[in-house]
Amino acid sequence: MANRTLALTDHLHEYIVDVSVREPPILRELREETAKLPMAMMQISAEQGQFMRLLVELIGARRAVEVGTFTGYSALCVAEAMGPQGRLIACDVSEEYTAVARRYWTRAGVAERIDLRLGPAVATLDKMLADGAAGSIDFVFIDANKTDYDAYFERALRLLRPGGLIAVDNVLWGGSVADPAVDDEDTNAIRALNRKLAGDERITLSLVPIGDGVTLARKRP
Q: Which pLDDT value is given to residue 3?
């Protein structure tokens, strides 16, 4: 029994990965290729990808949106978990990094399930809403520009069906959110969203200390 979350040492993290992570070879290859890139720190972990797959399966998601795609690891996890009938709209601004994503999506046989939309995500989400997509999405993953997190969340909540789920990444921001000496725009934006969601009656909330912290927000009926 424990009355608080256990501190995760390197040794314990290795054990968790060893006994619980089922990472398909193509995902492992993508993760290893991404690790060689200059912005490799933006890659989610294998255990977080597996956690997202489980969430998607649990809610029976068939329509999903991703804000921030990078090299496509999380998108591949979500697309595979949704199955052949699933469709994912992936929002990003980088042609270079998403070219890596496209290559792996094709190899995995899920490219036709993923609609990659290059451009500012706020504009993409606004267009979806203007086109009548409100209330039609099952699952949203937010992992992009931190200063726009609140804008992403508000649009995602409108797109989500009642009972749908939003997952917001990096909500612990390497621990900076709890350090009063840190006072930059990204950290303050994440802090503000965390505080806002803590009292948001539109959602059911849980902040899960996996990876860099993931907030799960279920839209209440």
A: 84
Burial annotation 89-108 (CB, 10 A radius, 16+ → b, else e): bbbbeeeebbebbbebbeeb
Tokens read off for 209 = 């200390």
Q: Contact 56/87 with Cβ under 8 angstroms?
A: no
> In the Cβ-directed half-sphere of 140, how many Cα atoms lie within 13 Å?
30
Q: CA 170 to CA 57: how far, in whole Å?
A: 22
User: Could you tell me the two tokens for 77?
Assistant: 């996890």
Q: Find tokens 């006994």 and name the residue.
A: 19
Please tell me the distance from the alpha carbon of residue 53 to that of residue 38, in angstroms, as a whole number: 26
Which pTM was predicted? 0.96
Q: In what order do the strands lie in the sheet with 87-92?
A: 114-118, 87-92, 63-67, 137-142, 160-169, 214-219, 203-208
**Helix spans in 60-110 (H):** 73-82, 95-108
Give the residue from 99, 100, 52 showing the smallest Cα distance to 80.
Answer: 52
Distances from the Cα of 159 to the Cα of 80, 91, 112, 152, angstroms: 22, 14, 22, 11
CA distance 155 to 46: 28
21-45: pLDDT as tens digits = 999 999 999 999 999 999 999 999 9
- From CA 69, how far away is CA 129, in angstroms rounded? 20
Q: Please give the Cα distance from 86 to 79 (Å, whole number).
A: 7
Interatomic CA distance for residues 141 and 163, integer angstroms: 15
Tell me the residue type at 60.
G
Q: Which residues pair with 2 in a beta bridge?
A: none
